[in-house]
Amino acid sequence: MKVRAINDKIFQLIGLSKRAGKLVSGAYTVEQSIKSGKAQLVIISQDASLNTMKKFTEMCRHRKIDIIKLGSKQDLGQSIGKPARTLLAITDLSFKDLILNELALTTKNMGVIE
């Protein structure tokens, strides 16, 4: 539960992007978003299968899209008001920047980034 508190603002930003219509969820819609060039940031749960991680990591690397591993399937689903979700894609550059900046601040506060 403590890990959830550290990432709370990130999950709030994910929920806000969903309410703004700037987020897609689920493997099929995330894949379509990546292929169409709409995805700005892909978020994959830490408990996703190795096959899913490999497939989407390669897909994002090929198209130069940022990808992060964050939270569990339940955390991602709960942040957008849905059942468990393995994959999310942010389709707005501003939300991407907000999430990545908050992630950098969170890891800096934890002593990971110098």
Summarize this, please?
The protein contains 6 helices and 4 strands; from the N terminus they run H-H-E-H-E-H-E-H-E-H. It is of the alpha+beta class.
Question: How would you sum up this structure, described in words?
Answer:
- Helix 2 (8-19) runs antiparallel to helix 6.
- It is globular and about 30 Å long.
- A four-stranded mixed β-sheet has the order 1-4-2-3, with helices on both faces.
- The chain has a single domain (2-102), classed as 60s Ribosomal Protein L30, Chain: A, CATH 3.30.1330.30.
- The chain has helices at 2-6, 8-19, 27-36, 50-63, 73-79, 93-109; strands at residues 23-25, 41-44, 66-69, 87-90.
- With 114 residues, the chain is of the alpha+beta class.
Mean pLDDT value: 86
Q: Note the run of SSEs as H and E.
A: HHEHEHEHEH
Per CATH, the superfamily is Ribosomal protein L30/S12
CATH class: Alpha Beta
**What amount of the residues lies in strands?**
5-15%
Question: What is the overall number of helices?
Answer: 6
CATH level-two architecture = 2-Layer Sandwich
